[in-house]
Structures are given as structure tokens and as C-alpha cells.
């Protein structure tokens, strides 16, 4: 059994996250705005989560991703826990994939109306035209605090 390490990535390690995310909506990390958390097992990144600060100061959680070969081992829970603990001083917002809302609820995220999302986060999903059911994502918020 390989040892696991859960930690925030340093900005010079962001290309490692970008490589893991390559097939996940082409996500990349920006050191000017992002905090990225990873679970390492056997020296490899096996799960990621990103917290992005938008220009208005709002914090968006996204990029929670575990490559298929590493799923079912609790890595996503570990990386989300690390992000929530590190970013607990701010309200956190997200568009959660419907099938993962129970996971995020474990960390204090609750469903909210889309109109309650900060504008920069809401604007990322303008293609859904206010129809979140068709998008299979749910707006969620976690209030600041541990």
C-alpha cells in the first residue's frame, strides 16, 4: 500500500495539476487567482480540487477531479476536506455536479438558488440560460467557518 499525502500545491507545481486536468474540461490553474489541493499516492496526483478567487473577492470551488483509475478510494473526500479547511475563512460557492451534491453536503455545502451565486460565478454558466436542471449541476454555498 502506497502512502498518501494531501496538501496544497505550490505555484511551480501547477503544471502537474494541469496535466491531470487535461482531459477534464481543459482546466488549468492560475497562480494569480487559484489555490490547488492534491492527494498524492505513490508519488502521483490522484485527486485535485481548486479554489479560485474572482475579482469581486468571491471564492469558487471547482476542478474537483479524480482520474477514473483512482476513483472509489476516498481521494475526492480527502482533497475537498483539505480545501475546505484551508479556505474556511471565506464563503465558498460552486456549481456541483448533481451526483456529487451529497459529498459536498458532508462539508457543509447547501443548495442555493442560482440568483444567490456571486455574478462572476453565475456568469460562467450563462449557456444554461437559467435552466440548471438541464445542466445537471446545482448551485451550492458553504458559509465561512470550520
Architecture blueprint of SSEs:
Elements: E1 4-8, H1 14-21, E2 34-41, E3 44-53, E4 59-65, H2 75-86, E5 92-97, H3 101-105, E6 110-111, H4 119-122, H5 132-135, E7 137-142
Parallel strand pairs: 4-5
Antiparallel strand pairs: 1-2, 2-3, 3-4, 5-7, 6-7
Protein model, in words:
- By secondary structure, the protein is an alpha+beta fold.
- The chain has five helices and seven strands.
- The chain has helices spanning 14-21, 75-86, 101-105, 119-122, 132-135; strands at 4-8, 34-41, 44-53, 59-65, 92-97, 110-111, 137-142.
- The chain has a seven-stranded mixed sheet, with helices on both faces.
- The chain is globular.
Radius of gyration: 15 Å
Give the CA-based shape: globular
What structural category arises from helix and sheet content? alpha+beta
Low-confidence stretches: none
Total number of helices: 5
N-to-C SSE string, H for helix and E for strand: EHEEEHEHEHHE
Helix content: 10-25%
Main beta sheet: strand number and arrangement? 7 strands, mixed
Beta-strand residue fraction: 25-35%
Could you tell me the number of beta strands?
A: 7
Please state the average pLDDT score.
91
* Spatial order of the strands forming the largest sheet: 1-2-3-4-5-7-6
User: What's the N-to-C terminus distance?
Assistant: 31 Å
Amino acid at each position: 500500500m502506497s502512502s498518501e499525502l494531501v496538501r496544497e500545491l505550490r505555484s511551480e507545481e501547477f503544471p502537474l495539476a494541469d496535466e491531470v486536468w487535461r482531459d477534464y474540461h481543459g482546466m488549468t490553474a492560475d497562480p494569480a487567482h487559484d489555490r490547488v489541493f492534491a492527494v498524492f499516492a505513490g508519488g502521483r496526483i490522484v485527486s485535485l480540487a481548486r479554489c479560485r478567487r474572482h475579482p469581486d473577492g468571491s471564492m469558487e470551488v471547482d476542478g474537483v477531479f479524480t482520474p477514473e483509475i483512482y476513483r472509489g478510494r476516498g481521494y475526492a473526500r480527502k482533497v475537498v476536506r483539505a480545501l475546505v479547511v484551508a479556505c474556511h475563512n471565506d464563503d465558498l460557492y460552486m456549481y456541483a455536479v448533481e451526483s456529487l451534491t451529497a459529498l459536498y453536503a458532508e462539508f457543509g455545502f447547501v443548495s442555493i438558488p442560482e440568483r444567490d451565486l456571486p455574478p462572476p460565478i453565475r456568469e460562467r454558466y450563462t449557456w444554461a440560460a437559467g435552466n440548471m436542471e438541464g445542466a445537471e449541476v446545482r448551485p451550492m454555498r458553504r458559509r465561512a467557518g470550520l
